[in-house]
Every structure is written in C-alpha cells, then in structure tokens.
C-alpha cells in the first residue's frame, strides 16, 4: 500500500455511500478501482471497476468501503475528486480532475 499524501485524490461521502449500497446488493465488499489508461478520444481514459487491492495501490477507505488507485495512475489523479452522480442521463462514478486540460463530452476521456 502506498502512504497517504496531501495531493492524493479525495473520495466524496456520496461515492463511499454508493459503494456501500453496491456491496450490500452483491453480498460482498469489493473495492472501486480508479485507473488511468491511454486511449479514448482525448488521449487518456478512466477505467472504473470493482476490483481487489494490489500491493502497490493507494487505498482510500471509509466505513469499510475502499477506493483503489494504482501507482502508475496516481500522478494523473493528484488532487482529483472521485464522486458519484445520479442524473437523468444515468448514475455513475465520476472523476473531477484538476490536471485535465480537456475532456470529451462523456467525461471518461481527457488530456493533460
């Protein structure tokens, strides 16, 4: 596990609450992984999925719910906020990333 740092991403209470709802519905607790990969229409894209922790992950935790960020993705997510939105167009986890200089309309692809 990576040590905490002031520039680490932050997870909102709403995102942790949604993770708790998912865990209850599944009957098990899995962590939410936020990763950055090459690709997408803007150069990088977020990979958001349920996963198990790896040795080099930063683990952000509250009330037994965990969000994971791997060491390679961490610099791209410095000072980002991970949230959950439930809007007319759908419900999803979102990343508010101050490092992104541009993003696509769907919000999953960005450039730095």
From TrEMBL:
Residue ranges occupied by any Core domain in the UniProt entry: 11-107
Pfam families the record matches: Fe-S_biosyn
Any one biological process term the GO annotation gives: iron-sulfur cluster assembly
PANTHER family: IRON-SULFUR CLUSTER ASSEMBLY 2 HOMOLOG, MITOCHONDRIAL
Protein name, UniProt field: Iron-sulfur cluster assembly accessory protein
Molecular function via GO: 2 iron, 2 sulfur cluster binding; 4 iron, 4 sulfur cluster binding; iron ion binding
NCBIfam families per the UniProt record, alphabetical: iron-sulfur cluster assembly accessory protein
């Amino acid at each position: 596990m990576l040590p905490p740092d002031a520039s680490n991403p932050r997870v909102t209470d709403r995102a942790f609450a949604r993770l708790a709802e998912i865990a209850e519905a599944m009957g098990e607790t899995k962590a939410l992984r936020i990763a950055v990969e090459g690709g997408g229409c803007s150069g990088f894209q977020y990979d958001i999925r349920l996963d198990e922790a790896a040795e080099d992950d930063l683990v952000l935790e509250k009330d037994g719910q965990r969000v994971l960020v791997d060491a390679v993705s961490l610099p791209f997510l410095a000072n980002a906020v991970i949230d959950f939105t439930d809007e007319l167009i759908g419900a999803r986890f979102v990343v508010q990333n101050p490092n992104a200089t541009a993003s696509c309309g769907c919000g999953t692809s960005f450039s730095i």
